[in-house]
Amino acid sequence: MDFIFICLHLSRYWYTESMTVHHLNRLVFSDQIIHGCFTLRTPDAPESGNLALHVCLNPADVMENRRMLQKETLPLEKWCLPWQKHTATIMRVTKKDAGKGAFDAQSSILETDGLYTTDPGLLIGVFTADCLGILLEDPTIPMVAAVHSGWKGTAQAILLRLLEALKQDGLFHPETLQVYFSPSLLVHSLEVGPEVVDQICEMAQNNNLSLEGCIHPGQGDRSFLDNQLVNVRMLESQGIPPQNIHLSNLNTKTSPYGFSYRRDGHKTGEHFSCIWIEEEKPSLFLTSDSLLQQPDAHWASVLGADSCHNNEPHN
Fold first, then answer.
1. Residue 239 domain-assigned?
2. Is 238 part of a structural domain of the chain?
3. 290 in a structural domain
4. Which of 64, 120, 151, 169 has a C-alpha 20 to 30 A away from that of 161?
């Protein structure tokens, strides 16, 4: 069992951790010296595992959850977090920014929805409840990034803004860049009005993106938006190979593992999508070509099919 655990951590591979109250449920991946995770709803944890200080019932409970997660990631003093406002603002951060947002929301990097860094030993992340969290990494640089992209961020092409920032800094190598999507509202749970469709279409036209398969008709003037697929189209337009893009099949509205604003309103907590670079390379590297070739297939089999009612519109 110990050997399998090491293999999972040193290969690019998804798995779930179903834990006790002393740990949070999360989806985990590793790629050489880079590690990341998406936290999931954990019913037995305080506030069901919510890690967002800006959306919580009791900050002390959130801090308890953060202290649990730091045991599996990096110490809180090495976290750097934004206070998201559905902007298209991207910021490069360094170790000088360590601790921002880790112990109180007011010290977060304000009005920012995307972070990236090349500094080892600095954990960055974003919070989501129905929106899409996107983690990017390239161990050959090394570089990590985190983006918050609900439909508002997608309409502003925040992911493209991040990729442009990486290009300007000489950090963009599409053949080695890996992209991971968090749990979010999947297409048949993300019902939107015509004003949202208009904004998405305008963004796509301005950036020469195809929206084939991204928008589906609903009742009346309503539509269903595939937010994941729109962001995939952005990645494809920049030459990122399909095998480097790792989607999520966990629907936050219908899964018991999901935090969902549309389902639970202001009572919901938020997922935390975080990523970091090791400060030192491990002395042992174990790889498995068979694991590396099919991370998403295994992840889907572990989680199982989501109980999404495809014909259930959101009212």
1. no
2. no
3. no
4. 120
| Cα four-point dihedral sign 178, 238, 212, 216 | positive
Q: Is residue 145 part of a domain?
A: yes
Beta-carbon-side half-sphere exposure of residue 94 (alpha carbons within 13 Å): 1
What's the predicted TM-score (pTM) here?
A: 0.84
User: Per the structure, how many domains does the chain have?
Assistant: 1
* CATH code: domain of residue 154: 3.60.140.10
Reading the chain (315 residues) residue by residue, the pLDDT tens digits are 222 222 223 234 454 554 445 689 999 999 999 999 999 999 999 999 999 998 888 999 999 999 999 999 999 999 999 999 999 999 999 999 999 999 999 999 999 999 999 999 999 999 999 999 999 999 999 999 999 999 999 999 999 999 999 999 999 999 999 999 999 999 999 999 999 999 999 999 999 999 999 999 999 999 999 999 999 999 999 999 999 999 999 999 999 999 999 998 888 899 999 999 998 754 444 433 333 333 444 444 434 444 333 444 333
Give the residue carrying structure tokens 């985990």. 28
| Local structure of residue 182 (DSSP, 8 states) | P
36, 144 in Cβ contact below 8 A?
yes
